Amino acid sequence: MNFTQAIKSEIFSKDIKSNERKKSFLAGVLRGGILYERDGEIGIEFKLDNELGVQKISDYLLKVYNYEVREISYLKDNRFNKEKIVINLYGANTEDIIEDLKIIYDNNGIKSVNFSDFSDFIDDINSFKNFIQGLFISVGSCILPADNHSEKTGYHLELSFSHGEMASIISEKLLSNRINNKITRRKDRFILYVKSAEEIKDFLAFLGLSVSVFKITETMIEREIKNTSNRQKNCDLNNLNKQVEASAKQLSAIQIIKQKRGLSSLKKPLQEVAEKRLENPETSLIELAEILNISKSCLNHRLRKIIEIAKDLG
Fold first, then answer.
1. Across the 314 residues of the chain, what is the mean pLDDT of every consecutive 10-residue run?
2. What's the CATH code, domain 3-208?
3. pTM (two decimals)
4. What residue ranges of the chain are covered by domains with CATH 3.10.28.10?
5. Coil, helix or strand at residue 143
6. Phi/psi at 107 (nearest 5 deg)?
7. How many Cβ atoms are within 10 Å of 234's Cβ, its own excluded?
8. For 121, which DSSP code?
9. How far from the centroid of its chain's Cα atoms is residue 65's Cα?
């Protein structure tokens, strides 16, 4: 189960008590549906990911509108190798339900799609939360870096709309509740998206989805631990490379002095350092200082002096 499915499962696990708030939820869900006409009557088709969702929506439709869902089919989604459940609402006062949920409206006897007048479901804060939950069920998705184990994948939550006006209204309402978001255009869709991990946490917390908040927090912690470990490894590697380069430079200088003048030409402290470095070419400065029973700073000073002498010898 990916994170999008986990969020949807948590939404369906919650029971909405009042019929008014059930309406708000259904209004959000059906917003992602496809309207059609059959034998002169309007119907709507929408897709779900799991059986729990079918049961929940069927239950709400029965309790709020006394409507019994009869048309359910299954569709194989080859692109994601999973099955979608297709629900059709048709006949038996379906048009009245769709109109009551503000998905269509009567324009002088002509039924038109409503993209802007759904204030009944968003003015009250709790109804607005249920409306957004329903929207996420139908047009939402969320990706975490752990979803496909790719370092290139970041945090991304989005709601996809067919019309820009509705995306703008929802965006402004979320912003007024301190949920940061932006809108972009993707082909013929308007995408309201939340990009950072903290902002996605705010969005999920706003909807009361504590399990999903915990999951994204856990992912953030795991990723930070991994990044810290990688930074430490890189730091260790850089230090090792510097150590190897420094050691090679020291050994080269000692060999020059040995070949041109002999190590015995050095003062006793420098000669002792040169000989011990030749005997321990891969030893770190700290370890070499311990062998010589001197401080690391003293060792550094003597090695720099040896390198200067080698430079003078050319």
1. 89 92 94 85 87 90 90 75 82 86 81 81 92 94 70 81 91 94 93 92 92 85 71 68 75 82 86 84 81 87 86 78
2. 3.10.28.10
3. 0.70
4. 3-208
5. strand
6. -110, 85
7. 10
8. G
9. 38
